[in-house]
């Protein structure tokens, strides 16, 4: 009830990208090895690091290695750095898989990959860098198709006067490319989980009522902080537990439907309250006999009971109209 009530007042929807606006089934579309590395030697190590990750981009790397018939070695000492990447040891070597910004912060020289990474990002693919023992080993490009109804759903939200924004941990160029495809102008990329929380808090301080729609572990804090958190039912357990609304149909259109339904519920509640108060204000004086001396109006107990039951029937029937809400 609280989630529906809050959703009725939403004027801004902030979307995550991967798994929310996109189908969440990214595929590896590009591999550029560096140094003495080849696709066949670097993918098993990258797959080993990502084999314990719940992130869709990690799943794409693991799937690609398996599709190529490459054996993934067991990982050790795995450390997930939310919003950045993952560190693990495989075959005695330290493997880092993540964003160029994070690898650079870890002391890896990423200059050789920067131009190509920007090119991939401008085409809507997510650039992922792999480093082994502190040296750049490969640039991976991972693409994820937008959900079929994403463009239509974003347009429907805008048509209802709802602001739409995109906050993504992907490279800014990738986020802008996807936002442009979907008709979203308010786009920020390279956003960490705590950045998402800060952006939502800033919007709410400015008077906006914000719904956060996401599906991943990285979205959990933002889902919990927003006025209403909306989690995709296909998302992580932590995201689902943090949200007030869970979409059993993982479509962008269901976000729009949530707001439409919540507004319809609020409208019906107001109608029922107005009816109940107005009906009783008019009927109680008659039932109490206050109008009998002047107008001769009075009700028998049986008729008063019937009219009271009729009031409840009207309220229930009006509420049942929500079954037809579209």
Rg measurement, Å = 27 Å
Distance between the terminal alpha carbons, to the nearest Å? 19 Å
Q: Globular, elongated, flat, extended or rod-shaped: what is the shape?
A: elongated
> Could you describe the largest sheet, including whether it forms a barrel?
6 strands, parallel
Low-confidence segments, given as residue ranges, are none
Give the number of helices: 14
Tally of DSSP β-strands: 12
Helix content: 40-55%
Mean pLDDT: 90
- Give the topology string: H per helix, E per strand: HEHEHHEEEHHEEHEHEHEHEHEHHH
How much of the sequence lies in strands comes to: 15-25%
* Structural class designation: alpha/beta
Strand order of the largest sheet: 9-8-1-10-11-12
Describe the structure.
The structure is a single chain. The protein is an alpha/beta fold and 326 residues long. Helix content is 49%, strand content 20%. It has 14 helices and 12 strands. A hairpin with a 3-residue loop joins strand 3 (76-81) and strand 4. Helix 3 packs across helix 4 (56-67), helix 6 packs parallel to helix 8 (172-182) and helix 12 runs antiparallel to helix 14 (301-320). It is elongated and about 105 Å long. The chain starts with a helix and ends in a 6-residue tail after the last helix. 41% of the residues are buried. The mean pLDDT is 90.
